[in-house]
Design brief:
Number of helices: 7
Largest sheet: 3 strands, antiparallel
Radius of gyration: 18 Å
CATH topology: Arc Repressor Mutant, subunit A
CATH superfamily: Winged helix-like DNA-binding domain superfamily/Winged helix DNA-binding domain
Shape: elongated
Number of domains: 1
Amino acid sequence: MESNAAIDRLSALAQPGRLDVFRLLVRAGPDGIPAGEIAATLGLAPNTLSSQLTILVHAGLLTSTREGRVIRYAARPEALSELIVYLMEDCCGGRPEICRPVEEAARAACCPPAKAKSRKAVRA
């Protein structure tokens, strides 16, 4: 990744409304959410949301798909992964134990362990 791309992505996420939009779309998964639903969920005015989405798409953090009159937006998790890798390159200086907590935290946030079954559910 080039430093300009990293700066664009960091800049795009460095505003509360855009960060909220991105986090909402990450939670929504690959199907994404129509723009109107994003606006309603986050309580954003359509013109404000439009500019926020444009910045996030330009930074490569979102994709947009037109479905008739509706535009559906989805997060590009690989764009975030590329940014994290760029930021973490060579951070450990040959000492992987330094980076391990970051890796484990990212894995836990993305893929939380399955909840243990309750005893009642096991007995049934």
